[in-house]
Structure to design on (454 residues):
């Protein structure tokens, strides 16, 4: 027998279930008084630097029905392309920008919405710049392990065409599933879990 | 913005690849809701960029004094949630067995009768007016965490004609990078419903199921007060050999 590697296995994922809001957004489902406010409800303050945008859309299942019980988390760089926190080696991000947010789909319409700023570009490991993007993580009943995707911006065509990750996907129709469509300051971004236009999900 | 910042590798390093075969597959038809909610295309794999290596950080200012006490954090003054009083404790570690300090852990659960405080839950078991069902805490410098609650009850759910969830507590954990984000469920040693649960059955390796079962920890009980269960959580580890993080061509 060779030596043991002495590594642990990651704790296996389990679905967040239909009552995920109780744990992550209790005020949203009427459980008041435990926390002052639901965590991740606001990314911005009046002093946040950058261009204000909204990101809104729906997560759709294989029958084109909105996933009304999903919770989505967003993680993005600030307007200069810096992430919050100590794992960012290039400098301090805008202290008035959280970088992370959490939103629930509306229980009737299934629409989620984030009020944020447009992120700056962030480097790929080989030094090339990635196109501006936000990372999204989606959990719900029937999703056994959180789904990781990204939204890129329709008003960044040149940067998108040179993005190292989008280039790796190659297939133009699949890339299109990752592009939020900009109208004014609103980015419209639907996520499709299945079907001909299934959104690209990542393993990273 | 044109003031693009210089690219330097993160001291944090990339995460070890996730073993997707250890986790549940997206499509597990015995858990019927997965049929319409499971992606069918292969995931696109890529090595971590800063977007995955970084992640939100939460401080102690976030945590209120009763956030880790579900027996009291929703109860009326002087009252307490009903049910078997338990302590759940353990460590947050990474795959290299190093403690993960400052990890935000959020938890939620049904009450002792198996009923959630949620308008979608119409199980006939009663709500407990003194139980909300949510809590949170941060792991310490040594990765340790603990909270106090009542043992949740099992409950039936609409899946096959007679499916019952074993008693469980949902956990959401943040490490230091977005790629470590994890939601899971903790089960209780000895629960006879465990082998029948199609959600646990989404795991194909019996050792993965065992990793989610918290043993009774008699030594950590508080006599005449609370029984204890131990639940360690393992997050993805960061690479740590001296050859990491070199840019291509360097």
């Amino acid at each position: 027998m060779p030596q043991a590697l002495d590594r642990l296995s990651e704790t296996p994922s389990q679905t967040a279930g239909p009552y995920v809001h109780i744990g992550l957004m209790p005020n949203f489902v009427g459980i008041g008084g435990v926390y002052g406010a639901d965590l991740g409800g606001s990314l911005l303050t009046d002093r946040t630097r950058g261009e204000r945008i909204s990101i809104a859309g729906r997560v759709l299942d294989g029958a084109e029905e909105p996933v009304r019980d999903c919770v989505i988390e967003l993680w993005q760089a600030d307007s200069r392309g810096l992430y919050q926190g100590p794992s960012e080696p290039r400098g301090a991000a805008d202290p008035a920008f959280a970088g992370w947010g959490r939103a629930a789909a509306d229980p009737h319409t299934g629409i989620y919405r984030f009020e944020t700023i447009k992120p700056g570009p962030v480097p790929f490991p080989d030094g090339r710049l990635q196109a501006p993007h936000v990372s999204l993580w989606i959990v719900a009943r029937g999703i056994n392990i959180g789904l990781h995707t990204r939204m890129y911006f329709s008003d960044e065509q040149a940067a998108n065409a040179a993005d190292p990750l989008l280039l790796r996907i190659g297939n133009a129709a699949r890339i299109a599933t990752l592009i939020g469509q900009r109208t004014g300051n609103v980015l419209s971004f639907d996520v499709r879990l299945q079907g001909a236009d299934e959104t690209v999900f990542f393993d990273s | 913005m044109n003031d693009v910042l210089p690219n330097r590798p993160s001291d944090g390093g990339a995460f070890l690849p996730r073993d997707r075969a250890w986790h549940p597959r997206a499509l597990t038809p015995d858990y019927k809701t997965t049929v319409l909610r499971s992606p069918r295309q292969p995931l696109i794999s890529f090595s971590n960029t800063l977007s995955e290596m970084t992640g939100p950080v939460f401080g102690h200012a976030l945590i209120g004094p009763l956030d880790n006490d579900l027996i009291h954090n929703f109860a009326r003054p002087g009252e307490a949630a009903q049910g078997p009083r338990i302590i759940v404790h353990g460590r947050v570690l990474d795959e290299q067995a190093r403690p993960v300090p400052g990890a935000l852990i959020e938890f939620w659960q049904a009450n002792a009768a198996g009923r959630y405080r949620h308008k979608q839950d119409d199980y006939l078991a009663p709500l407990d007016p003194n139980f909300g069902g949510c809590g949170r805490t941060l792991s310490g410098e040594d990765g340790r965490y603990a909270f106090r609650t009542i043992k949740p009850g099992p409950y039936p759910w609409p899946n096959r004609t007679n499916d019952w969830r074993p008693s469980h507590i949902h956990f959401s954990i943040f490490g230091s990078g977005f790629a470590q984000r994890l939601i899971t469920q903790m089960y209780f040693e000895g629960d006879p419903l465990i082998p029948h649960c199609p959600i646990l059955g989404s795991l194909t390796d019996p050792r993965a199921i065992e990793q989610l079962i918290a043993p009774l920890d008699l030594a950590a009980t508080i006599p005449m007060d609370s029984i204890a269960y131990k639940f360690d959580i393992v997050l993805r580890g960061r690479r740590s050999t001296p050859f990491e993080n070199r840019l291509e061509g360097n």
Notes: Residues 20-192 of chain A form a domain with the Protocatechuate 3,4-Dioxygenase, subunit A fold (CATH 2.60.130.10). The longest helix of chain A spans residues 164-169. The mean pLDDT of chain A is 97. Chain A touches chain B through 90 residues (CB under 8 Å).
